[in-house]
Design goal:
This protein is an alpha+beta fold. The chain has a domain of 304 residues: Transferase(Phosphotransferase), domain 1.
Length: 448
């Protein structure tokens, strides 16, 4: 695979993030949504066993249903053009727990308890669905920086190892000959090769991780793989409190209960482990346990990117800087000013309803007054004498208005009627001559 290759017609490979015994991890961009993801490709030879491949996809589909912030989100799965199975996961920023231990050393007891408790809560969501990780180790716990700048531990590579151990034995080893997985964190039942592995195996692995975060050492070690397996099965480990007396008896006892070789005497579930660690964290810090996010600020992210040599599959970048309070205050003032100016402009553009109504009432009042005066004048006027009419005109003379007759109301007035009818002209009859030689009635201007 090379940068620029297109996988399944939508994932464009950008750059390789890491390479390990199971395959390689790439940063890729979905060209349909323009969103970046991390894609982990398994070795093509792991896909040659049909049963193992089928179980891998079943496990991946189940992992995609786990909705917990402590478990890396799985969005898609498929097979590349060369037959290599792949998982599409969220692309994160931060560092692995192994890098954190190498960079800053052991954790304070409260930090260690909070971290492992949070991871145990994520494993609880998986265990109730019948999923067992089987390869928990510091390299598979990643301190991711979320959008708020807080550090959140996440479990990586969930379910992959359980699918691969079902493959043909010749595929259980990497190209370097090392046993697939991390032997130092294997439970005794894994070391014996038991097939009925359940969630208590992950509880053991969390106990080893808790031991290491508190002491900086692993409880069991050996010169080679066989000696390590014998030590896990037969030897007694050194109590963590002997290496770090600051952890206290109560936390030391809980670590011991996770490292019981007989799984029936071990802490039974990830939920029980999480509850006991949360209770211890509350007593150690003196404050209620609100979740890892509120306590993770003390675990400062690395000042520079620190890539994992083999197993890192996430992009490591510096912490995003937060916007200062002054910038937010300035922005709020600017928005308030714009909103205020807009409100004033809208208020000024509204029609003056009250002013228009006042003017309308005034105009109507004035008109009514003039109408009343005109009616009074008509009542006081003398009777109109009948005017002379031409011969044959039958028009009746106007009748004077008496004071005791019906008073004329405004709506009874005629619109534009003359006080006396004009002379009528009958077709075929010559009109009377004009006086003083006028040609046009009433018009004497020569320019007409």
């Amino acid at each position: 695979m090379q940068p620029g290759d297109l996988v399944s017609g939508k994932y464009r490979l950008l750059r390789q993030l890491g390479r390990g015994g199971m395959g390689s991890v790439w940063a890729a961009r979905n060209e349909l949504t323009d969103r970046d993801f991390a894609i982990k490709f398994l070795l093509p030879e792991l896909a040659q066993n049909r049963d193992a491949l089928h179980r891998f996809f079943l496990e991946a589909r189940a992992c995609g249903q786990i909705k917990h912030p402590a478990v890396v989100a799985v969005y898609d799965m498929g097979q590349a053009e060369d037959g290599a199975p792949y998982l599409v996961m969220e692309l994160m920023e931060g560092e692995g727990l192994d890098q954190r231990l190498e960079r800053s050393g052991i954790f304070r007891p409260g930090e260690a308890a909070a971290c492992v408790a949070y991871v145990a809560r994520g494993l609880e969501e998986a265990h109730v669905r019948g999923l067992v990780h089987r390869d928990l180790k510091p390299g598979n716990i990643f301190f991711a920086i979320d959008d708020r700048g807080e550090v959140v531990p996440k479990v990586l590579d969930f379910g992959v190892t359980k699918a691969t151990v079902l493959a043909d034995p010749k595929f259980v080893r990497t190209n370097t000959g090392a046993v697939l997985g991390s032997p130092a964190y294997m439970s005794p039942e894994q070391a014996r090769g038991d097939e009925d592995i359940d969630g208590r195996s992950d509880v053991w692995s969390l106990g080893v991780i808790l031991y290491e975060t508190l002491t900086g050492k692993i409880p069991y070690d050996g010169a080679n793989y066989n000696q390590l397996m014998v030590s896990i099965l037969m030897d007694k480990h050194r109590p963590a409190i002997e290496l770090n007396p600051a952890i206290g008896e109560e936390l030391n006892d809980l670590v011991e209960s996770t490292l019981q070789k007989d799984r029936n005497k071990r802490v039974r579930t990830a939920r029980e482990l999480a509850e006991r660690l949360e209770s211890l964290c509350t007593r150690i810090t003196g404050t209620p346990y609100p979740g890892f996010g509120a306590r993770s600020r003390s675990m400062a992210p690395p000042p520079k990117p620190m890539p994992t040599p083999t197993e890192t599959w996430v992009e490591v970048t510096p912490v995003r800087r937060r916007t200062s309070a002054a910038v937010w205050v300035s922005g709020a003032v600017f928005v308030a000013a714009v909103v205020g100016m807009g409100g004033i402009a809208i208020a000024r553009t509204r029609p003056p309803v009250a002013e228009v109504a006042s003017r309308s009432v005034s105009v109507l009042s004035e008109g009514r007054g003039r109408l009343v005066k005109e009616l009074d004048r008509l009542k006081a006027a003398p009777p109109v004498e009948p005017s002379a009419t031409p011969e044959g005109d039958k028009t009746e003379p106007a009748t004077p208005v008496k004071n005791d007759e019906h008073v004329i109301e405004p709506d009874e007035l005629p619109s534009a009627a003359p006080s006396a009818p004009a002379p009528r002209w009958t077709p075929g009859r010559v009109p009377p001559p004009k006086k003083n030689g006028q040609v046009h009635d009433g018009v004497t201007s020569p320019g007409f």
